[in-house]
Amino acid sequence: MSHHTGLVLDFGGVLTTSLLPAVLDFEKREGLAKGACITALYLDEEGTRLTHELERGAITQDQWNEAAAARLGVTPENLMGRIFADLRPEPLMINAAAAARRAGVKVGILSNSVGLTPWNLYDGYSLDTLYDAVVISEHHGMRKPDPEIFNAVLKLLDLPAEQCVFVDDTADYLPPAAELGFATVHAEAPQQTISQLEDLLGVPLTEEEEFLTNGL
């Protein structure tokens, strides 16, 4: 079996803890009904349009904060940061990505932006030093699942899609990647994702497996 030599990871919900619990905790803190954010910002047509414009860099995070706050009936100050205040790094996936790189796999990040100021989702993750390519949607004026943004990360990795695995917690983004030739993994739980990646990449991605493999 020929193994893949490239790995493209979504950021939020893959290298971080799951997005939904953070959003639900925000709703509790703000006294909102459960599901209010998803309904107003991601299921409603106007809310979806605003979010897609933010992801493409057509509006700023401050502009999104103002518009989203009006829809939710909350204050706009650092709204995006407040919504995702409970997000934390997902160490199993971060360590797995590092193990893949040590094994010679090229690892890239492909993320739909939520704006970079006043709150930066990527702060503290050292993306530019820990990964071989980083594509943030607002820097390119396009968003997943546009095929061009997948091609942008492939160009930086200098690999064809057929050699790469794409991991995302949003299932809707997987079929467009598969059409380009990527193998795809739906990130639902870190251990399950890592197990699938080990099969596709042909390398151990956990400390325990590295220990057994190397006999140290």
What is the straight-line distance between the termini? 27 Å
Which strand-content bin applies to the residues? 5-15%
Q: What value does the average pLDDT take? A: 94
Helical coverage, percent range: 40-55%
Report the top-level CATH class of the largest domain: Alpha Beta
So, the CATH homologous superfamily of the largest domain? Answer: HAD superfamily/HAD-like
What is the multimeric organization of the chains shown?
A: single chain
Shape label: globular
CATH architecture of the largest domain, by name, is 3-Layer(aba) Sandwich
Task: Estimate nothing, just give the exact number of structural domains.
Answer: 2
Poorly predicted regions: 209-216
Largest sheet: 5 strands, parallel
What can you see in these coordinates?
The chain is an alpha/beta fold and 216 residues long. It folds into two domains: 6-17 and 88-214, Rossmann fold (3-Layer(aba) Sandwich); 19-83, DNA polymerase, domain 1 (Orthogonal Bundle). It is 50% helix and 11% strand. It contains twelve helices and five strands. The chain has a five-stranded parallel β-sheet, sandwiched between helices. Helix 6 (91-102) runs parallel beside helix 11. The chain is globular, with a radius of gyration of 18 Å. Residues 209-216 have low confidence and may be disordered.
